[in-house]
Structure formats: C-alpha cells, structure tokens
C-alpha cells in the first residue's frame, strides 16, 4: 500500500465547514501576539462522543511523573492491539482532555486498547523531555502488556500534529535503541521538520478552485507561527536533529521503521512536509500509506462527531492497524 488514497470528494475546494472555520479565524486575527497561557487555553475544538459500547477509562501514572489515560471496551477479549496516542498542540499545549473523544472512538471502533499520554510541554520542559515521556510510556505498555490485556506484538503509536511528530520520532528512538516495541506508526498531519524551508511553505503548491485568498491567508498565518514553536520546543538543540525533525533522519535509520500511515488534509499547512517525509521514507524502503482528505485543513481529527472526515480518518486508522481492506470514499 504505497500509493496515495485520494478521496473521491471534489478536490481543490474547501469543505463548507472548513470555509466557516477559516473565515472565523481570519475575523478574529489580530496583530498582538497571544501569550503562552492564552494559546493553551484556546486549544480544543467542538467535538462529540460517538462511542457506543460500554467502556472503562482509567488514569495511571508511569515512572512517577508521566500521566496516561487508558481506554478499553469492556466486552473486548484479551489480548487486543494497542495504540499509544500522543496529542497535538504545537509541543507547548494540548492535553488528554483535548483528545478524549477521538481516543474513545478509536477504542470503540477498533476493539483496541488506547493509552493516551500526557507528555511534558515546552517551553518549560523543552526537547527531549516530551520524547522521553513518550518512550517511557511505550516501554511501560510493552512491559505491562499482559496486565493491560494487550498483544505486545501489536503496539502502534499514533498522534496528531506535534503528536504526529512525536509518533515518528518515538518510532525512530525505538529502532535506534533496538527495542522494536512498535508494529506500526500512524501520523495525523505530523510536523516532520521544524527547519525553515521555502519549498515546504509555498502556497502556490496548494491549487484551489475557489477561496484561494482565504486559503493563502490561513497558510501564511500558520507558517508565521512556526519559528516561535521551534524556538520553544527545540531550546538549544539544532532543529536538524532527526529526533526533532524526522525529515532529516538518515535513510538507514528510516529503513528500520515498521509500516507507516500518514493522514493529511488537502489544505493542511503541513501537507508539503508530510509528503516530503513520505517520499523520503519510501525511498528508504519503508511501507508507507498516505491518505489525503479533500477539503480539509489542519487539526480536523479533533472534530470527531462534527466532521464526517474525522470519523473516516479514525476508521482508516483501524483498517491500517488490523490490515483490513481500504474503503474508497
């Protein structure tokens, strides 16, 4: 499964709900730079709980400081596949609560055990704190697979945006250390590089049949914030480090990765760098499946129960994990 799965919805145009979102963002944009607490408080999107089966949700602390939240449907028989889920939020925000409904949906739709990780946030705790928290959670899940009712051979890491970056680099750390805990890797519109690159922020590479001015304003606004995010997260470390920017990983290291699923919206500001990483990983011999969701912008997974594409993405994830056939939409 190395080719793009292009959804049959009309390409080149924003989804109507995405138009509303971008117009609201444009109207609310100001010249002042919000402070860190305001940015964190503003995170999260409208979503609905779509899970239908009885589920047990519990919190646990790993290694004395890493909080995780575990989701599992009561009727699912052990052992199940497991997803280590890493939330988005630009490395400086986001929380377990922000991805509560997607995690419930994944556990329900896929008969999976989901372990959501509350990793360290920058700038108070810059790189490598978040990565180490994520790997600690992965190691704990593998070592405690039996008591969690999890198949240790079917542990997957998944995450969105900054969490997608952490999914990729947790997988790179896993193979670097030779632990090979992961069977698959999932990135929802992951940040694959924090290094400025004009080719990867070229709005001309986003062809649109309508709303081009609105789309370009959205893309450029996102790109303008990336320098601050990189400064907060990387701290004193060079952003070219492959555990910060996996696009810079050596091909020999990439080649050791398990199968990878990359999901991205058509008008996501990170789409070009996601595509660049996918192509680089493929050249290294990685089994990469890329799915592009027409009309979507960044962070659409969060809107589960509101956007049909969000549920489609979660169902695609389940199909990838379980090796089931793809459904063309």
From TrEMBL:
Q: Residue ranges of the Alpha/beta hydrolase fold-3 domain?
A: 83-301
* Keyword rRNA-binding among record annotations: no
Top-rank taxon of the source lineage equals Bacteria
The enzyme's E.C. designation: 3.-.-.-
Q: Give an example GO molecular function.
A: hydrolase activity
> Does this UniProt record's set of keywords contain Hydrolase?
yes
Keywords from the named record: Hydrolase
Against PANTHER family, the record matches this protein to: AB HYDROLASE SUPERFAMILY PROTEIN C4A8.06C, ALPHA_BETA HYDROLASE FOLD-3 DOMAIN-CONTAINING PROTEIN-RELATED
The protein depicted here goes by the name Esterase/lipase
Name the source organism.
Answer: Kluyvera georgiana ATCC 51603
